[in-house]
Amino acid sequence: xxxxxxxxxxxxxxxxKTMLLFGIVSLVMTFAGLTSAYIVSSTRADxxxxxxxxxxxxxxxxxxxxxxxxxxxxxxSVKEEKQAMASAYLxxxxxxxxxxxxxxxxxxxxxxxxxxxxxxxxxxxxxxxxYVIAFVHIVHVIAGLICLLIxxxxxxxxxxxxxxxxxxxxxxxxxxFIDILWIYLFLFLYFNT
Length: 193
Known about the structure:
5 helices, Four Helix Bundle (Hemerythrin (Met), subunit A), mainly alpha
């Protein structure tokens, strides 16, 4: 199918999906750069090799995986015109996303309790990378939560149904991306610290 064919609505929908894809590709490149710099820096003499990720990061991994499942269930509920179920799953996804952020902050406090700060005399380059990578991801989770709030608002205004799901689909795609991204980052940090 020619990308210039279709109604104005179809063209607009394709354009929005393409813009999201470009955004995701740019984020992949950002995190590829951060993890590449981490690998290059790990050859430094002052690199910390015996650090274990805080247990709160493992909890956040579980929370974000479950949140991916709940947003899938929300989409399925909208497709099946089960609006009450969709509402419950969307709100649960929001709660899990907020819990993810709290678990990350708690993970930072566990790192600080271990004696490693972001800056100052108790900081080191290893922990600075861990802080930056996790913090930049949190910023994108916050962006995902904002998208989710907009979707929830539109859902309660009854703007989504089995024939009109673009906003929900875009938000779900971004949410899955940040979920997969955290799985990658967690495994990367787990096996490289």
